[in-house]
Write a structure and sequence with these properties.
Length: 213
């Protein structure tokens, strides 16, 4: 569960789920019904969520999910909101609207003066040497959950999403031209020869699978 989700789920709910299994609910009982439930779920995800997954979790027809998603996307566009819903790689997720890119870029660049933590530097190194790579593989190398660190690196513009893994569907990450600029590199070929000391792809898969078991 993400940091946001952990903060928004009351202890009573967590305890009840542990004791009795997932809580039953009717989306019709929510203030904004299924539309609000879909928004709430998409606010706490780190990767695009499929229509099937949303329909299953909320126990509503997939056609209803598609209708709500399309309607929400149109609603945000008409209102000129700073965010939008996009269907990317077979899943839906919130993204900042392109119209507001200058404001987002300025905010991100203004925050570059803050130093990266050791955890961020280690995660960035793994991505740089093994890109494109999924978060689970990075976690396998570092031995810890890297969700928060990856979000930080994305926010700072040092890494970006680069498609998805053909087998698992997990989002892949690569470094950006801004990373090269900050590192004073012309290309990734200029990275110091440290890659041989990182596990090979097949070993990373085994470690990732073990970590999810």
């Amino acid at each position: 569960m993400s940091d946001i989700a952990a903060e928004t789920v009351p202890d009573a709910v967590t305890d009840a789920e542990t004791a009795e299994g997932p809580l039953a609910f009717d989306v019709g009982d929510f203030p904004s019904g299924a539309r609000g439930a879909i928004e709430a779920v998409l606010m706490v995800v780190d990767e695009p969520v499929s229509e099937v997954a949303l329909a299953t979790a909320l126990e509503i027809p997939q056609d209803d999910v598609v209708e709500h998603l399309t309607s929400l996307e149109a609603e945000y566009a008409q209102a000129g909101r700073g965010f939008t819903l996009r269907n990317v790689g077979g899943g839906w997720r919130f993204y900042s609207r392109a119209d507001y890119a200058p404001a987002v870029e300025k905010f991100l660049l203004d925050g570059q003066q803050a130093k990266l933590t050791q955890a961020s530097l280690e995660t960035l190194a793994v991505i740089a040497y093994r890109q494109p790579i999924s978060r689970s593989r990075v976690s396998a190398v570092r031995g810890v959950n890297v969700d928060g660190v990856v979000r930080t690196l994305l926010t700072r513009g040092l890494i970006t999403e680069h498609g998805s893994d053909g087998d698992s569907g997990a989002t892949l990450y690569v470094t950006t031209p801004y990373f090269l600029e900050r590192m004073g590199l012309v290309s990734l070929d200029d990275l110091p020869p440290l890659a041989p000391y990182l596990p090979d792809a097949d070993i990373l898969d085994e470690l990732a699978d073990a970590g999810q078991a």
